[in-house]
Amino acid sequence: MCSCQASGGGLVQAGGSLRLSCAASGRTFSSYVMGWFRQAPGKEREFVAGISWSGGRTYYADSAKGRFIISRDYAKNTAALQMNSLKPEDTAVYFCATGPEVGFPSSAGMEYWGKGTQVTVSS
In the prediction, which pLDDT does 2 show? Predict the structure, then answer.
């Protein structure tokens, strides 16, 4: 059993930066991936970025490429999402989740989800 807890959200002006963190507690697997997803009001949850626990392979949505950087500390079971050049359209609740890398970045394969953290970007 693994649980994930996201933190680091807040209110920031457009162009600013935020760093989200996710701590996975309990049992984790080297073949798993840590993913970040977000959901804006009235919209479906969407993939943002991901990183494999063991190999450090990274995945980014087109909207995140060049602005967001995902990293992980395998020994500490933590992952971070550095978000730069934030835009109002990045406003959403951000979730971290972990699950098998096979099938990623589909959210359907993610097994463990944490409570989200709100990110609000003002214009």
Answer: 61
